[in-house]
Each structure stands twice: as structure tokens, then as C-alpha cells.
Amino acid sequence: MTPATATAPTAAVGDRLPAFDLGRLDEVSAALAARAADHDRTGAFPRASLQLVHEAGLLTAGVDPRYGGPGGSFTDITRILLALGRGDPSVALIAGMTIVPHLLQTRSPWPEELYLRVLAESARRPTLLNHARAEPDMGSSTRGPLPATTARRTGNGWSLSGRKRYVTGAEGLSYFLVWAATDEPQPRVGTFIVPAAAPGIETVPTWNPLGMRATGSHEVVFTDVEIPADHVHELAPPGAGPAPGTLPGSVTLLLSSALYLGVARAAQSAVHTFAHERTPSALGRPLATTGRFERGAGEIETLLTSAEQLIFGVAGRVDRGEPVRGLDALASKVVVVRHVTTAVETGLRLLGNPGLARENPLERHFRDIQSAGVHAPGEDAALPLIGAAALTAQAPDA
Predict the structure, then answer these.
(1) Which of 109, 117, 116 is nearest to 2 (CA)?
(2) What pLDDT score was predicted for residue 3?
(3) 259 phi and psi, to 5 degrees?
(4) 92-133 pLDDT, tens per residue?
């Protein structure tokens, strides 16, 4: 059964989802911010913060009304990710990985029975989802090689074996969305939906990064993990194009960049607070009144406003049903990452040594924003694609 033919009992599942209220975003963001420094210091999985995000209905904000959900738009989800990123970007990244599959369910549907089960669990507790794509020997999964992780046919379904890395939220996930290749004579690739409670899954605690320390993006080993035959999403030959009507993946990558815009906005607030509170004795007035800080603040605001316009512009186009080219969204992502990173670096230069002090939140924001450009595809992969398309568009006629 497809979502388009879902019956009334389907919607009844979603009726029990936590109440969704965008008006609570500032409250939730502030609560996350109060715990963020401790999560950064310890690297502990932020269970209490994710419970708060769940209770505010944000994890399931993108569930379609046909399933009894609030039907949050792309613009709504962008606002959510920005607010969560401003509070605690580690929590925002874990939450975003769950929010987006719900948002895309009507465009790229999971098996109906399985999705209803996930919704029923989501009504009771935080039910976290995330893709497991990267592998130790593969490099970026966007560059085209087949995954080494293999799905083997069994009498009851599939048996999955392989090793994944950078699996955000690994220790708290309810379902791993594992990118794997079948062992068929003509291999197919797809996403195998693996319950975290299935036997044969081991989380290897390897995550110890500069920033985004509480995302728990550890390695995960799958050894002969058995899953039912229908726990598969978009299984197709390698290189097959997306299904008609499917949103370009670069659009969701751009929307996910909203959480780093949230980091940059939090850094901006730290800079403004310092500028208003700091009054050097030789100056006799707050730094906020000096031309240097006014120019710096103007540069930061210009960078962040333009990044915000790009992200929300694409989200609005999707909500209005307007076509969005994948390369356009990818180019916007490149610009957004550049702008948010430069804005935080500009704030750090304004503050100088005080900005590098561990007790100053700007130091943490600076470390966290370094992850913005790491998410695949990075500039080194994106710019050749964008450039090749631009050159081809203006190539002389053969």
C-alpha cells in the first residue's frame, strides 16, 4: 500500500504523536543551550535534550497529515533545524537525521507497514533514525563506488554484513538506514532498514572530534544481521536515477545546513554580548560603540542574512511546488557553508584572545562550525559538478 492509499487507521497512529508547536522553538533552543557546553565537554550522548525535542513534537514535525502528523513544511523544518542548531548543534544534527526521512515519506516512501510501526514507536518515545553510508575504505559515498557492506538473500529476507563509520547518533538510534549492495549476480544498491535491537550490531566508540562532540558519530559493525525482506528502501541498479518526483538530495543537504546557520547565529550573539559588556578603561565606552566592532558586526550580519535567504528561498520554492534543480541547491549549500564559517571566524578575530578562552561560548561555536564544510559532498566534489554543468550549458554547438 502506498501513502496515497492509506486508510483512516493509518492516520490514527499519528494521532498519538507529541503535540507540535513552532511557538516553543525559542524555549527548546534555550533549554538545549543550557546543556550544550556540558555535552561538548563530556561527549556524552544527549538523551535528555533529545527527549525534550521529542516532547515538543519536533522529531515528528514532518510527518504527513495522512498519517496523523502535523505536516510541517520544508520552511518549518528549516526553522526547527536553525533553532536547534542555535541551542546545541549536536542535538540538531541527530534530530535532523530523524526529521528528514519523515518529511520525505510522501516523496520517497518506506514500506507502509514498517513506517506505521516507526510512527507507533515515535508516539511513545524518541525514535531516532539515521543513514549509515560511509565506510572506512570507501571514502565519500557521493563519489560513486559500490559499498562494501553486503546484503545476502536468505529464506526469510536479508542478511547484512559490513562496517560503517561516522554514524551520527549511533548509540541512541532505533533504526539504522544502511546503504549496502546485494550479492546478486547483477548487484543492486539501496537502503536496508535495520532495527537497532537486531542481533549482530556492534557500536565501536571511535568518535573524538574537534567539534560536534556529542553527536556520537561512531563506527558500527553489522555481522550477519537478519532483517525481513521488505525492510528495503529504493533498491535499484548502481547509478539508477531517482524515482520521478523525488526531491534532489542536494535540497535536503542545503536544508540541513540550517543547523550550522544556527551555530553562526549563536556565535553572533556571543560576539554582541562581549561587545556590549566589555568596556576597556582606556576607551571608556563599550566596544560595541567602536567603528571596528560596528564594521565587523555589519559583515557578520550581511553574511548570515544572505545565507538565511538562500536556505529559506529554496525551502519556500519546494513548499510552493516550484522545481528546484539539484545543482542550484548544491551551489547554494557551498555559499551557505562559506558564509556561516566566515561569519564565525570574523567574530573570533574581533574578540581576539578572549574568543579562544574555553569559558567563552564562541570558542565552542568556532569548533562546531568547522564541521559545516565536512558533510559530503564538500566543495572539492561539488564545485566540479557545478562547473561542468555551467561549461556544458554554454558550449559551442557541435
Answers:
(1) 109
(2) 39
(3) -65, -30
(4) 999 999 999 999 999 999 999 999 999 999 999 999 999 999
Write the CB contacts of 5 (distance below 8 Å, at least 6 apart in sequence).
none
CATH number for the segment(s) 132-236? 2.40.110.10
Cell of 318: 519546494
Half-sphere exposure of 211 (CA within 13 A, CB side): 20
Residue count of the chain, please give it: 398
Beta carbons of 79 and 72 less than 8 angstroms apart: no
Cell of 69: 502528523
Q: What is the CA radius of gyration of the chain?
A: 22
- Please state which architecture CATH assigns to domain 249-390: Up-down Bundle (1.20)
Collapsed DSSP state (helix, strand, coil) of residue 139: strand
Beta bridge partner(s), residue 189? 181, 236
> Which residues, including other chains, have CB under 8 Å from residue 359's CB and lie 6 or more apart?
none
List every span in the chain annotated with CATH 2.40.110.10: 132-236
Within the chain, where are the H helices? 8-14, 25-42, 47-55, 74-87, 89-103, 112-124, 249-256, 258-277, 291-319, 326-351, 361-369, 379-393
Q: Place domain 3-127 in its CATH homologous superfamily.
A: Acyl-CoA dehydrogenase/oxidase, N-terminal domain (1.10.540.10)
Cα 300 from Cα 339, distance rounded (Å)? 9
Decide if 134 contacts 162 (C-beta within 8 A).
Answer: no
Q: Does 70 sit behind a cis peptide bond, omega within 30 degrees of 0 on the bond before it?
A: no
**Cα angle 178-72-18, degrees, rounded to a multiple of 5:** 80
Judge whether 46 and 88 are in contact, CB under 8 Å: yes
- Measure the CA angle with vertex 267, ends 265 and 273; round to 5°: 105
pLDDT given for residue 138 in this prediction: 78
CA 370 – CA 212 distance, rounded (Å): 9
Mean pLDDT confidence for 272-276: 98
Q: Where in the chain is the domain with CATH 1.10.540.10?
A: 3-127
Query: Each residue of 178-189: pLDDT tens digit?
Result: 999 999 999 999
CATH 1.20.140.10 domain locations along the chain: 249-390
Q: How many helices (H) and strands (E) does the chain have?
A: 12, 8
| Burial of residue 314 (number of CB atoms within 10 Å: 0-12, 13-18, 19+) | buried
- What is the three-class DSSP state of 397? coil
